[in-house]
Amino acid sequence: MRKYFVPLAAVATAMFLYAPIMIAQAPYESTMGLVQKIFYYHAPSGMVMLVSAIVCGVASAIYLWRGTPAADRVAMAAAELTALFGLIVIVTGPLWARKAWGIWWDWEPRLTMSFVGWLISVSYLFVRKYAGPGSDKLGAALAIFGSVNVPFIYVSVNVWRTMHPKTTVVPSLQPGMRGPFWFSFLALLLLYLLLMTARVHLERQRTALDELYLAEEDAS
Amino acid sequence: MIRRLLTMTLTAALTAAPALAAQPPAGQSEFVPISQLPPADQLPAAPLLVGAYAFIWLAVMFYLWSIWQRLNKVETEMRALAQKTARR
User: Fold this and answer.
1) Residue B39 domain-assigned?
2) CA of A214 to nearest chain B CA: how many angstroms apart?
3) What is the share, in percent, of chain A residues with pLDDT greater than 70?
4) A164 touches chain B (CB under 8 A)
5) Residue of chain B whose alpha carbon sits nearest to that of A40
6) Per the domain annotation, does B57 fall within a domain?
7) Contact A148, A184 (CB under 8 A)
8) Is residue B17 part of a domain?
9) Nearest chain B Cα to A90, which residue?
10) Do B81 and A198 touch (CB under 8 A)?
11) How many angstroms separate the CA of residue A92 from the nearest CA in chain B?
């Protein structure tokens, strides 16, 4: 992956520079107008957030059952990225809602459950940083709960009465909107993979540093 | 009897009048596109859109910078430790 990191980072940057041009050229949604264009980053960020929460949960489960250190590193990186993409979703959503709904926020199922999902990822990070010995296992259990929350976030708009657009919006996008949407999603997914690689590398280096300190202590 | 009825009607009318006056205007019966709303009800969309995109860029850039900072710190510490060990 290290060999492909720089070329892929260049591709991701190019995609991010080109995405706004594609989005600007996409047709206007008839009722919401210009503000609907927030959707092209808001919804894919939400999708990446959910993917990341699942990655974090699966990696944590592997770590709990098998004790694989690599799985713990992936879980740690995925939790941080869930918090990052969750923050993007939570900030860009209200900017759209203020114009489309007339309010910044409403405690309806989709918004509340997304907020809870984001809080779980942030609490995982707090646990890992401040809970002391055993925080890896405690955090892993928390991450599994976080991933269990994901299907509920996804179906919440279809099952409960909610103001939020339903999941059928994406499959029913008109052709002019479909291209920019999936292009933005791919750009964000590529960015996610690159950030994940960089963050896992950081965690690996931290482990190597800890081992160096232990070796140093043994030698002295 | 008639006088009592008139008094009751007048009292009811006077009591109900402020309550009726304070009622919100009747809700619209059908969907109104944003473009057809009165100017006072319209919000400019551009600052919200620009704000959303700027936030995404800033958040990603800040996160990249934070990874780079943390990685630098760890690698500097590793180099210092390796030098210390080599000196022995």
Assistant:
1) no
2) 11
3) 99
4) no
5) B53
6) yes
7) no
8) no
9) B52
10) no
11) 5
Question: How does pLDDT run across A130-171, given as a tens digit for each residue?
Answer: 998 899 999 999 999 999 999 999 999 988 888 898 888 888
Under 8 Å between Cβ of A38 and A199: no
- Structure-token pair, residue A49: 């957030």
Is the confidence at residue B57, as pLDDT, over 60? yes
∠ at Cα A71 (A70, A73), nearest 5°?
A: 65
Cα atoms found within 13 Å of the Cα of residue A45, Cβ hemisphere only: 26
* A41 to B52: CB separation less than 8 angstroms, yes or no: yes
Q: How far is A151 from A165, CA to CA, in rounded Å?
A: 16
Cα-to-chain-centroid distance, residue A213: 33
Domain that holds residue B55: 50-88
Number of domains within chain A: 1
Cβ–Cβ of A99/B88 closer than 8 Å? Answer: no
- Interface predicted TM-score of the whole assembly (ipTM), two decimals: 0.90
SS3 A29: strand
Q: Please tell me which residue, B42 or A46, carries the higher pLDDT value.
A: A46
Which residues in chain B are contacts of A77 at CB distance < 8 A?
Answer: none
Which residues in chain A are closer than 8 Å to B75, comparing Cβ atoms? 205
Q: How far B33 CA sits from the closest chain A CA (Å)? A: 5
Inside any domain, residue A107: yes
Are A191 and A184 in contact by the 8 Å Cβ rule? The answer is no
Residue pair A26/A37 in contact by the 8 Å Cβ criterion: yes
A81-91 residue pLDDT tens = 999 999 999 99
B15: in domain: no
